[in-house]
Amino acid sequence: MKLPLNLPIVTQHALLRFIERALGIDVESLRRQMAEAAAVGVKHGAGVVIWGGAKLVIEDRVVVTALPRNAVTSETATATVERPLRPVRRRRRRKS
């Protein structure tokens, strides 16, 4: 998506921090869950793991992208992980 020239650029870092702090998503918990799912694929030599409604693409033990579950990929070895996503919302802290 191209933005009009007069709009500022939003970095990946700023977007990630917004997701964590404003939306209350626990990004590290989500990262851990993705890694656990990808580990199943790595164990079985798969380059793609279907998990959480998406395809996790793995190259050299690194999850490099997440695609829609119905996306066509060139990988022939695919593992499906049926573990449900655990909630990743952070609890609101009480004001003292």
Keyphrases for this structure?
alpha+beta, 4 strands, 96 residues, globular, four-stranded mixed beta sheet
SSE map:
Layout: H1 12-21, H2 27-43, E1 48-51, E2 54-59, E3 62-68, E4 78-80
Parallel strand pairs: 1-4
Antiparallel strand pairs: 1-2, 2-3
Q: Quick summary of this structure?
A:
The chain is α+β, with helices and mostly antiparallel strands.
Helix content: 25-40%
| Proportion of beta-strand residues | 15-25%
* Rg, Å, rounded: 17 Å
Low-confidence stretches are: none
Anisotropy-based shape: globular
Helix count?
Answer: 2
Q: Provide the residue-averaged pLDDT.
A: 85
Folded structure, characterized:
- With 96 residues, the chain is α+β, with helices and mostly antiparallel strands.
- The chain is 28% helix and 21% strand.
- The chain has 2 helices and 4 strands.
- A 4-stranded mixed beta sheet has the order 3-2-1-4, with helices on one face.
- The protein starts with 11 loop residues before the first helix and ends in a 16-residue tail after the last strand.
